[in-house]
Amino acid sequence: MGEKVAESGLYGIGEAAARTGASERALRYYQELGLLTPCARTPGGMRRYSEADLARVARIRELQSLLGLNLDEIAVVMRSDDRMSEIKAAYQGTKAGTAERAALLEESLELQEHLLQLVQAKKAALEDFLSDLEGRIARIEELGER
C-alpha cells in the first residue's frame, strides 16, 4: 500500500490492483489487450494509474460480472465508450458545424445500435440457458415424483 505516489495522485500497479480488486496480472493483461493504458510511467518504466484508470478497470470488471461479457466483447464496448466521449467533445466543440454535428450524431447512433445488438445477443443466449435449466429442473422434479 506504500506504492501510492501521494504528490501526483497516481498509483503503482500493486495499489491499483488492491483498489480495484483485480490482480496485477489482470491489469497487465488488460493493457496487453488494449483495454487499459496506464496514464503514466515512472522514469524506470513502472506503470502509474490514475483515478480515471481505476474507474476504467471497474467498468471492465462490471461488464464481465454483470453482463457476462468476454474480453473481446468488452473491447468492443470500451472502444465504443471511448469513441462516444470523443464524439461528445467534438459535438460540443464550438468549431463543429451543422454538417459535422449531423455526421457525429449518425456515428453515435450507429455505435449505440451496435452495442444494443451485442447486449441483445447476450440476453438471448442467457434466455436460452435459463430455458434449458428450467427444462432440466422440470425433468428432475418429474423423476422425483415417480
Describe this structure in words.
- The structure is a single chain.
- This protein is 71% helix and 3% strand.
- With 146 residues, the protein is mainly alpha-helical.
- The protein folds into 2 domains: 1-66, Multidrug-efflux Transporter Regulator, Chain: A, Domain 2; 69-146, no CATH class.
- A two-stranded antiparallel sheet has the order 1-2.
- The longest helix is centred in the last third of the chain and has 48 residues, at 98-145.
- The chain starts with 12 loop residues before the first helix and ends with a helix.
- The model is unreliable at 1-7 (pLDDT under 50).
Index terms:
2 domains; 5 helices; 146 residues; two-stranded antiparallel ribbon; 2 strands; Multidrug-efflux Transporter Regulator, Chain: A, Domain 2; mainly alpha; flat
Order of helices and strands, N to C? HHEEHHH
Number of domains: 2
Structural class designation: mainly alpha
Shape: flat
The main pleated sheet reads as: 2 strands, antiparallel
Mean pLDDT: 90
Would you count the extended β strands for me?
Answer: 2
Strands side by side in the biggest sheet: 1-2
Q: Count the helices. How many? A: 5
Radius of gyration: 21 Å
N-to-C span: 60 Å
